[in-house]
Amino acid sequence: MIRSELVQKIADENPHLYQRDVERIVSTIFDEIIEAMSRGDRVELRGFGAFSVKKRDARVGRNPRTGTSVSVDEKHVPFFKTGKLLRDRLNGNA
User: Fold this and answer.
1) Which pLDDT belongs to residue 16?
2) pTM of the predicted model, to two decimals?
3) How far is it, in rounded angstroms, from Cα 10 to Cα 27?
4) What CATH number does the domain located at 3-90 have?
5) CA neighbor of 59 nearest in space, from 44, 75, 81
6) Within a 10 A sphere around the Cβ of 52, how many other Cβ atoms?
7) DSSP letter, residue 17
8) Where are the domains of the chain?
């Protein structure tokens, strides 16, 4: 599902809301998740999962084309851990 499909589904299920308002709500939620993660905070959605940021240390990598050593800088990457309810539903346990 992509963002526009999510907005359309929410708008269809809530006919009292305008589609532009649903788009604003969805954008605000995503923006707040991004903002919290950029501060290094953890975002937990009960039953769905938790978003967090993991730090990857600087290292020496290899250029796959030439085989030469390349230094890779330290970076922060997003990480998602599924919640128990989501995991159970995906495995047919709920």
Assistant:
1) 95
2) 0.78
3) 13
4) 4.10.520.10
5) 75
6) 16
7) S
8) 3-90
